[in-house]
Write a structure and sequence with these properties.
433 residues; mainly beta; four-stranded antiparallel sheet; 31 strands; 0% helix
Amino acid sequence: MKFFTVLFFIFGFPLIGFSNPDPPIIQMTWEKSYGGDKQETVHSMINTSDGGQILVGSTESKGIGKADGWIFKVDRTGELIWERTIGGEQDDILLDIVSNDEEGFMLVGTTASKGNGATDIWLVKIDGDGNMDWNKTMGTSKSEKGSQIIKNAEGEYVIAGTRHIGNYEIGDSSRHYELSHYIWMIKVDDEGALLWDERIYIDAMLHITDLHQTQEGGYILSAISRKNVKDVEDSFILKMDKEGLITWKKWLGKETVPDLIHGILPMSNGTFMLAGISINPDNVEDANGWLLLMDAMGYVTWEKYYGNIGKGGDEFHAIIRTKDSHLLMVGMNGSSSENEGSMWMVKTKMNGDIVWQQNFGDNYIERAYVLSETAHNEILIAGNSDPVIDVTNSNKEDSYNLPTPQFGNVRLVKYAPREVNTEQKPYELQSKN
């Protein structure tokens, strides 16, 4: 809506007014794709001091293994400055990145090429040009996986990973396999030396989705698991003290369908905003973006749902607080079809009311997994772009006639507030004769 201020003059002068512009809205500045002819993934992104970004994930198109850890830097226009692959002959993946005190970065992930077991937690230190200073593994002869890394207020690094230990029990006439699962919290210094670690037993297989330091110096973690082996997947939020000991744990979600928290945003008053995916128990193909406010003791104050309510597959995968004190979530806006979906941004007020939302991409399955905001109020979202394979006219009984599977690349999209001409230009009001 345009508002008009009209100034009235006498002595035969025309009536002059000024038009105030519409409020600025978001617009795409550019979009880029990165990768090769096989599968690439992105899991983390960080702004650099020169206005660019470093993205972290895995690649099957480059490197020497099945999948290698992949790090690449782009400038403010999205042009590739450098890229590095790290790994061995097996599957290796980098999942998170944080800056260090030496104008470099610490990364964490999972490696099957190095270490002591099937997979190990993988800690990598690089300089500002992406050159590796060192890499270390943490694990046993069993299976460990690294997921998240943060730098705490004391300048140390806290890693959240998992440990999975399997044991065979052989009886007189039967054989039983038992698998134990743990969250593994690890604190290290800038050279990767262990300061402390804590294992937290979990009943079923789990996946860690986010980690932050709390206002009082402890840690809050989100993970996806089951309350017991027979349950559907749900999320739990785990709050810990400075030494990684549990303060409280809260399960979220419904009993019959999975509900998944992917992002945590600690607030200045000790509360937490959570973002993820909520499934409709009456229609499992109906998923919605899910936003919750949790108090300091882990109790949900309110929750809201976003997207094509009752119709589609809508997801939130990350959340930040913007410089103008709003919430911004990214994910996918889709429908009940598995072959449709676009990158999706939703900006809300702190109470969850929508300010605006924006979609990108309609010819691919587009999911945004990470986002950042620059010093110039620009927004970058990164995710995976997977081509849609049309099998409508294929002979499904003859597998040789099915389309060749195609793999997706990493997509990076930059948005900025729309430039609005704020100069007030006069106009003449036509008088009636």
